Amino acid sequence: RTLRIGLIPGDGIGKEVIPAGRRILEALPASLKLKFEFVDLKAGFETFEQTGVALPDKTVETLKNECDGALFGAVSSPSKAVKGYSSPIVALRKRLDLYANVRPVKSVMTATNPIDMVIVRENTEDLYVKEERTYAAEDGSKIAEAIKRISEKASFRIATMAGEIALRRQKIRDSGAASIHQSPMVTITHKSNVLSQTDGLFRSTAREALANPRFASVGVEEQIVDSMVYKLFRQPETYDVIVAPNLYGDILSDGAAALVGSLGLVPSANVGEGFAIGEPCHGSAPDIMGKNIANPIATLRSVALMLEFLNEETAAAKIYAAVDGNLEEGKLLSPDLGGKATTTEVVEDILRRL
Amino acid sequence: RTLRIGLIPGDGIGKEVIPAGRRILEALPASLKLKFEFVDLKAGFETFEQTGVALPDKTVETLKNECDGALFGAVSSPSKAVKGYSSPIVALRKRLDLYANVRPVKSVMTATNPIDMVIVRENTEDLYVKEERTYAAEDGSKIAEAIKRISEKASFRIATMAGEIALRRQKIRDSGAASIHQSPMVTITHKSNVLSQTDGLFRSTAREALANPRFASVGVEEQIVDSMVYKLFRQPETYDVIVAPNLYGDILSDGAAALVGSLGLVPSANVGEGFAIGEPCHGSAPDIMGKNIANPIATLRSVALMLEFLNEETAAAKIYAAVDGNLEEGKLLSPDLGGKATTTEVVEDILRRL
Ligand SMILES: CC(C)[C@H](C(=O)O)[C@@H](O)C(=O)O
Ligand SMILES: CC(C)[C@H](C(=O)O)[C@@H](O)C(=O)O
Predict the structure, then answer these.
(1) Is CATH 3.40.50 what the domain over B149-259 is classified as, yes or no?
(2) Considering only CB atoms, which chain A residues are within 8 Å of B132?
């Protein structure tokens, strides 16, 4: 099988980690019978400055018509509002209907307090519809409003995805993988005590989706988002799969990343029907760009995650194992993990373990 | 001076901790020349079940016309949407225009990694305006929308309050109090990379408010909310004052509470012009209600915080010191802190130290 992968490095350290993602795909063992072709694509703030467009149509069209998957690096947010600029990754998620943002947060099993959870974030609506307006109050001062939109459809499919992921994780456990969890569990996060209609709809629809007999073995519980953040830090080991509307998912996944020591370890995949974009959870980190010290692990794991959603689970497992090998040995670590290794050294150590 | 204080226990353990708040006010040394009168007031889910109204007008009117301040316990959120019920504390904040929710999160100075921050949360708008509607999509499925409203006025006054609090904290440090901070700093939290108009307005208005020469000595920085949660856990000791729109403030304060070991330690005050309601950050905790094991410290500190905003700083300082004494000794702690003491024992230990 030949997979055609779009490469969108974006800004800052995106340009250093996406090439690492390409290298690991090229280094996969021949026995897997997987071939890769790559297409370089543009998006980001630099692209905006050069062309006036942050997400060129050509990038979207090429992904849609020619690619099986993609890797996205990171984009810089301008430090002041810039007219006409808006985040290309948010636009890309919507234009390709990549309705789920899947973010596994996992420590190595040898950690003192191992954790192993996946945050399944709705990726197309909520406040991310970006419908805003500004008007003047009677006294001339400004008021701005934004729409938070929650639909039954999007809530249903994201909760279903969370249920499927919970089942898949249980299957891997049943096949003998070491794990801290006994049985599958989905935690629905919302703030329906304040937002009874929007988050109330998310909550009741998620319950309905997870009541499908297909998920009979999956436990279902709920946490109000503020309390969820509290518990995430007090008892992170109890969480298996967390499903949340877009914005809470964004916040929770950064919070969970803090638990494993660095955003530089946490991958994500933007997933739609038959298409997935791997994307490290970290940003463009302008402070360390060009120094060859960015942690490539979030990207390498995002490559694996993308492969999982393209049904190449064996290849994915090889990458995860190679990364875990590097972390468990702990000799070649990037500075965010307290080490001194360069991006290149970490990548090469992981390639050796493939 | 005689202060008239409304007591609103609400539901669950609210009924156990608010009496503790009353006791500490009554136990303040006579040398302070402070007298207290108390008015018992109703609100909460139980009140709703009994009367059909969660926040009786009488409670609001009595607070407005007869009281100098109040203590609010906690309210239970029904486990399913209940027609006509909506959170009385959210309504109370708006009806009394208690525009700031001030939440100090502080470990004892003898902690291994001491932290000492205040979250200053806007308390009247954002998604808490609760303007929601539900409609049918073309295919008949449901869509719900909520308004997130951010005004220049509310953003300006909350940022000004944050600046004032930063100055006040510095003054206390200047007078020789031990502290982990050298100089005052306000961190503005927002998500303007997605919500350029609403959170953009919060951001630019907060910047403007803090550019007042009055705050010349106050450092100002910004954090995007997801990154803020990450940093809150990675380097909490660096934060002095955090200012945030309503919902982010809600989430951040629970997150910060996790850092000091228990929500049972974290106080808050809902503050308006000349009025303040002390309110523990924890909920009604139905699982432990009636057992006399709720941690009263969040409430006792909320009493002190209320007194600070009523300009009774000496009385407040006495309560803080008595609470710190109890925690530093660590002999009589409630179960949430790993101890075995009852609510009554903790309260009595603290009263002894007054
Ligand atoms: C850059 C930003 C628009 C984005 C988001 O909010 O989704 C980022 O925080 C993420 O989590 O991928
Ligand atoms: C109970 C709930 C409505 C409330 C809020 O969201 O403000 C609570 O979480 C708080 O922080 O005081």
Answers:
(1) yes
(2) 195-198
